[in-house]
Recover the amino acids of this structure.
């Protein structure tokens, strides 16, 4: 336990960081944009479309939920029991700064292997419905890369914090919080050039009417975009998507090749306008700032929990378990903020294109193609939904149209 005299500073810093975190989330999140009518899937989705979504969910959710539970519970069981220490000892790796990464990778590997059966069953459902087109070799490769990158990230932070704790048992929280926060900042900045290319190939969108239209749209929006990149998503999925990642010199606008294949141009334009909304509002930068503050807060809490015991590399299992607890508890908050930010990007795309009719049609077509859940259960919505549901997004399109350009009729005639 840290001595009482060494606790007031981290307590005060933790309190200040928590305040800064709450303040940043409160002022950067667009809590209210427009009054929405109650979302109603039956206005725009046919009975057959709704039935297909339900059937997909019914087959998929038992497996994907079980996988998620395993991936949370297994690291907790290992970390919070003597198993973590036993694993560390059993691996017999020395010195400690090699043993820690190996143990992290071991815990992640055990978790990964235990979720293989349910993940295989989930992937088979995805293949059956034509959502996934991935071959099993790529599926295994993706899992491997994912395992390696996740283990590396957690291991680097663990080794750094333990090294600091060995040098300054009573004061490691301050340099620890700084270094961990800087690492999060660096990874978020370098993510588009370091991580994304491990999964996809990116090419510049070829010159043509569509590309010129996008660049003109970006110009009209006051968002300078040098290039539009196309990702070869079609090797994995038939789903349609686009995103903005990085900030400053690494910021990029990426569209899936699946989107360019057979989506009507007016709808692609709306997707791009949505992404420009993220760029215009600096959403990635704000998200990174929240991640940086959250990490510094987390390290300070970790010090208050473990104190000088953090110097013990055999505690690495506890560290991994605490990371899992923190990320799991943070995800409902992250998703709440994300849904608001996504709604603002939708709102931006409506203002930029002034095209609510195609907006509603696009949200419908996207949801059908991606087999998105139209009406998820409450806990699933809070735990997993990073975007508003398609009926919610459509309701926003309608509310915007009612205020600005005349009502959009339902897509399903009754
Ligand atoms: Zn978005």
């Amino acid at each position: 336990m840290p001595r009482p005299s060494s606790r007031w500073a981290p307590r005060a810093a933790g309190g200040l960081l928590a305040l800064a975190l709450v303040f940043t989330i409160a002022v950067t999140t667009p809590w209210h944009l427009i009054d929405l009518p109650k979302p109603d899937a039956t206005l725009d989705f046919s009975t057959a479309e709704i039935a297909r979504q339900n059937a997909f969910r019914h087959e998929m959710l038992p497996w994907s939920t079980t996988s998620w539970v395993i991936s949370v519970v297994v690291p907790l069981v290992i970390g919070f029991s003597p198993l973590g220490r036993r694993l560390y000892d059993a691996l017999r790796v020395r010195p400690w700064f090699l043993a820690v990464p190996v143990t992290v990778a071991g815990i992640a590997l055990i978790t990964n292997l235990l979720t293989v059966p349910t993940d295989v069953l989930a992937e088979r459902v995805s293949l059956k419905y034509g959502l996934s087109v991935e071959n099993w070799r790529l599926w295994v490769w993706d899992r491997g890369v994912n395992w390696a990158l996740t283990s590396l990230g957690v291991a680097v932070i663990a080794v750094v914090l333990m090294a600091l704790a060995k040098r300054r048992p009573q004061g490691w929280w301050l340099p620890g919080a700084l270094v961990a926060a800087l690492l999060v900042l660096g990874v978020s900045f370098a993510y588009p050039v370091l991580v994304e290319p491990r999964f996809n190939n990116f090419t510049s969108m070829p010159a043509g009417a569509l590309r010129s239209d996008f660049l003109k749209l970006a110009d009209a929006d006051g968002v300078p975009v040098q290039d539009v990149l196309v990702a070869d998503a079609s090797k994995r999925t038939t789903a349609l998507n686009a995103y903005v990642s990085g900030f400053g010199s690494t910021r990029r606008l990426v569209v899936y090749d699946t989107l360019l294949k057979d989506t009507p141009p007016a709808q692609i334009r709306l997707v791009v306008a949505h992404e420009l909304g993220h760029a215009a509002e600096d959403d990635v930068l704000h998200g990174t700032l929240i991640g940086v503050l959250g990490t510094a807060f987390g390290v300070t809490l970790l010090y208050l929990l473990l104190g000088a015991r953090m110097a013990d590399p055999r505690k690495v299992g506890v560290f991994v378990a605490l990371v899992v607890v923190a990320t799991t508890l943070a995800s409902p908050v992250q998703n709440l903020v994300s849904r608001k930010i996504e709604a603002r990007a939708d709102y931006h795309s409506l203002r930029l294109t002034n095209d609510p009719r195609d907006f509603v049609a696009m949200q419908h077509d996207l949801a059908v193609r991606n087999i998105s859940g139209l009406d998820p259960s409450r806990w699933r919505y809070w735990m997993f939904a990073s975007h508003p549901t398609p009926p919610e997004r459509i309701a926003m399109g309608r509310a915007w149209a009612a205020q600005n350009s005349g009502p959009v009729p339902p897509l399903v005639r009754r």
